[in-house]
Structure prediction request, 521 residues.
Amino acid sequence: MTERSDSLTRELQELRDKSPAEALRRVDELDETPNGRATAAIILIDCGDALGDLASVSRGVDILEALSAEIAFSPDIAYNLANGLQLRARHSVESEMSFRGQVADDRFRARVHFGAVMNDTSASLATQSRMLTNIGILFLETHRWVEALDCFQHAQRILPTNAVAAYQEMRRLMSLANLFFQKEETYRSYCHVDALCQRVRYLASVISKNYDVFEQFAGASALPEVQKAVEQALTFDEVPAKPVDIPYFSFVRRNNIALSLHCSTEEFSSGRFDLLTIPHVHTSLLDESGVPEIFAMMNVMKADFAFARQVFFEVREDDAGTPYFETTSHADTLDYAVYGVRYSALTTAQRIAFDILDKISVAIACYLKLPQAQKTSFINIWGKQEKGKGFLLSGPVEAELIGGNQPLIALFNIFQDVSRHENLGDGFMGAQKQFRNSSTHRFTVLHDMGRDHSSKLSAIDHNNLEQFEQLTLASLRLARAALFYFVDFIIFSERHKDNAQGALVLSSEVPDHDYIRGRKE
Prediction:
């Protein structure tokens, strides 16, 4: 880069914050080198966003797409392209439905590029943390709020000073706290509200110490609003967190993978913290007697999740004791592969977690009274791919999506991210389905040393042990989020049902299973 172009770049970057319209007017002064084009694209996207100028955002996206096709993979280019696609979708959303069309395609491709940055070890911690913050915001825009909270927390683990991620999480938790207080009977199984408020208080303290980072990442214009929210959150009483003595419970708390958004110390002490449940459903006098079977389905899915999570905990460390006996001998394949019950348990945990998505689809099909509900899967419930026509949604599902069923839109987006699409390629979560299928129908072989293990046989999928452990944790997080969306789906649908004459409401206060079985008073 020449001294003149370097000076122009700095000048335009300053204008980007102070006078976005002037920066856009002068952007064509940049040269046509890759660096010049990338800088121009970023200015077009950021300033176009600030001014609500969709054409400038689209032009920036086009430049980055061309660059991405010309040069080797760059995490910075991928990150900025994902950011541009996300913003283009945001500025276009009023003219299109969020689950199909160009808006949905842009969001899908943004998630793919964000996912590529997530998996690239050369990306800096700051880039990874900002990427997780942005994909969290993108998840919120498609009603995937549980995954968004996970992303904001992960962004802070990578970069503890990331005040933007802390603010995004805090703002969402504050809105959830208001909802839970207003509709306590409906949402009381979602979390312990006091524990949630303590998390809000902690996040406010993080933000207050890192306003400079917030300004660096998001600009100064948003600071007054942020400071006002932080001041409100800091009025919450600060209660020191008590330690959780049982290692497994401590693991659940540390990774925030309970079927509850935030749990109290008392819930961990009691050993009952997976409290998410369906609050109630409406039934008519024409329905079969007894508790609706959707409650039994939810019970099974919760138990499957808790079992997969506990298996993962028991086998994730090679030198830790497990309840499993290693009784088999194995031939060494001389490629650093690891064999035994421990690793079969690990692949089983991933498979059980991912299979919860199939159970959710069957439960939804039963609830909507779809034909052949028992044969439904998470792949076929949505519709089918037809050559030359693209993906065609099934009628009942499309009607629900058009009707604004936000939890179903969230689950449909997950389907897109674990699938391959005719025109757009693989979703960024496709590895989860790939390894679930491999361990179910073929062979998954894990390696604790070496890299780039492959096979000429399509019957075997190889993966690094540490990477597979992270994949399993990701599958657990995905299953957890999907279960929240499923309960959201039931709540949404029940709210919009006609209250027919003679309807009876069955609530989650049907007898507690442990009480009926005599396991608690």
Summary: The chain has a mean pLDDT of 88. The longest strand covers residues 443-447.
